[in-house]
Write a structure and sequence with these properties.
Blueprint (H helix, E strand, L loop, with lengths): L2 H14 L4 H20 L2 E11 L5 H11 L4 E8 L4 E11 H12 L4 E10 L11
Antiparallel strand pairs: 1-3, 1-4, 2-3
The protein binds nickel (II) ion.
Length: 133
């Protein structure tokens, strides 16, 4: 790697609080792989975070309607009334990455949503559940 690039990398490591270069590299590779899964349609999990003004006409109804359309994918939703006007919603979902992407797009692009962020991760290969008796 060129010296200048490496110096920039070291500054990033310092800023982000990684213990060392290999920890930072592992994290970068994992993030890239998550992005790859996002594009592939493989099983994934995601959180979708929204901040919006609930006074915007029909926005609350719209967001609820979209979530009902994806009821099979949504694991849980957390709603916080931030202040008189604003709501924070965090939605956890699982399913084929492409479906989660479509869900996230519909929610974050809904008119009136001020801030929308998605974090997606590949779902580790499934192992059979252990049953205790
Ligand atoms: Ni609220």
């Amino acid at each position: 790697m060129e010296r200048e690039l490496l110096q920039d990398f070291d500054r990033l490591i310092e800023k982000k609080g990684y213990a060392n270069r290999s920890e930072a590299l592992r994290d970068l590779v994992r993030r890239e792989l998550d992005q790859e899964v996002w594009r592939s349609g493989k099983p994934a999990v995601a959180t979708i975070t929204l901040v919006y003004d609930h006074h915007v006409r029909e926005l609350t109804e719209r967001l609820t309607e979209i979530q009902h359309d994806y009821g099979d994918n949504i694991l849980s939703a957390l709603h916080v009334h931030l202040d008189h006007d604003h709501c924070l919603e965090v939605i956890a979902a699982r399913g084929p990455a492409r479906e989660l992407e479509a869900l996230a797009d519909r929610l974050t692009n809904a008119k009136g949503v001020q801030s929308g962020k998605v974090v997606a991760a590949a779902l580790p290969a499934a192992r059979p559940r252990k049953r205790s008796r």
